[in-house]
Amino acid sequence: MTNKLTDLIGNTPLVLSKTLNDHPKVRLYFKLEGQNPGGSVKDRAAHNMIASGLERGDFSKETRLIEATSGNTGIALAMIAGIYGLNIELVMPENATRERVQTMRAYGAKVTLTPSEKGIEGARDYAEAKVTSEGYQMINQFGNQDNWKAHYKTTGPEIWRDTGGEITHFVSSMGTTGTIMGTSRFLKEKKASVQIVGVQPTDNSSIPGIRKWPREYLPKIFDPKRVDRILEVSEAEAKAMTKRLAKEEGIFAGMSSGGATAAALRLAGELDEGVIVSIICDRGDRYLSSDLFDG
């Protein structure tokens, strides 16, 4: 039994692929991060960034917090900020799904939408300007060390425990890169031979939650030495696999999870044997107003 909502963050289940992966000597596990109370893997980082920041005295209930987000981090920050009684403004492109905007507002956050043609980079620029000119303080998920540390403390140990140390490959989409950075650090300390595989979109593909950042916007927490290999997936691949995940495995998730799954299956086809863990980073219900599940 637990008395705090934040105690329910983490310890998400691993589910073995029974349909999509047909390689008899490769086990592919999906880590279902949509089971977190805020519905995504970002609950881990949001809680660690806010709880650790408060503990150090980096900010207080009087601080005006601000953060740019493409969606899941914003929802998680809105939830955690509300629990701790903090004021937060979340900034994201205006083409974000209505479900995401409404969920953040339901948790009590102020939501500001920036021009869609400027993307998440435009939202980041807006937030930076508010910090510079109006005295706001940024959580800064792209440079906050507490982001990746959340996964070093929780995600990595859970995967190691739940695979009995048999994991050979870890696959994760890369956005802020906190998940892959922290999990890589932990798993490599346990077994240096574990291969860390990042997933990025192909050129001209738009996949929410996966980015190929321009150099000037590359997350400061990203260390390329902690990723052994990068696989690229197209928008069409990610969409198709997201639909297959729901229809064939019963896993209802967003497009970044479809992208990661497509990469994991490609990887499985290359191996003689192995144990792959792929991150399913959120739930599909926050994409229903988009065209992701049309047709």
Automatic annotation (TrEMBL):
Modified residues (N6-(pyridoxal phosphate)lysine): K42
Tryptophan synthase beta chain-like PALP domain sequence ranges: 6-282
Catalytic activity: O-acetyl-L-serine + hydrogen sulfide = L-cysteine + acetate
Domain of life: Bacteria
One BP term from GO: cysteine biosynthetic process from serine
Keyword annotations: Amino-acid biosynthesis, Cysteine biosynthesis, Pyridoxal phosphate, Transferase
Cofactor(s) needed for function: pyridoxal 5'-phosphate
Keyword Amino-acid biosynthesis (UniProt): yes
Any one GO molecular function term: cysteine synthase activity
E.C. numbers: 2.5.1.47
Recorded metabolic or biological pathway in which this protein acts: Amino-acid biosynthesis; L-cysteine biosynthesis; L-cysteine from L-serine: step 2/2
UniProt entry tagged with the keyword Plastid: no
One Pfam family of this chain: PALP
CDD domains, A to Z: CBS_like
PROSITE patterns tied to this protein: CYS_SYNTHASE (PS00901)
Protein family: Belongs to the cysteine synthase/cystathionine beta-synthase family.
Designated name of the protein: Cysteine synthase
